[in-house]
Amino acid sequence: xxxxxxxxxxxxxxxxxxxxxxxxxxxxxxxxxxxxxxxxxxxxxxxxxxxxxxxxxxxxxxxxxxxxxxxxxxxxxxxxxxxxxxxxxxxxxxxxxxxxxxxxxxxxxxxxxxxxxxxxxxxxxxxxxxxxxxxxxxxxxxx
Length: 143
Prior knowledge:
Layout: E1 4-7, E2 12-15, H1 19-24, E3 33-35, H2 37-44, E4 52-56, E5 62-66, H3 72-102, H4 108-125
Antiparallel strand pairs: 1-2, 1-3, 4-5
Pfam families: Caudo_TAP
Protein name: Tail fiber assembly protein
């Protein structure tokens, strides 16, 4: 059975079979400790429990910890991505409707949808993503 070593510093596992190559390249972690096959299987061969991530424990062994909350900058970046995606969706709906309206051949339903989606797009544009996560997203019109 293959042996594995764990480094708390890198939060990674290293197979003993590759130890010489790691040593030769001077990349074998100085803090590596042997871990048994059950620990290797749990932390490196399976998915983490919901809401958890692998981290080094106080004893130098891997443990599951709660996924840390996103930082303010990460929340703002996430909100900006969502805003841009929703604007893209909105524009892809508005464009063909605008052709029907501009050429005077739009049905009453197309005119209604056109106006609802334009209003939605304006409301999206007004969103201040720096307020994340406290953003009141407008409701997308039903197609």
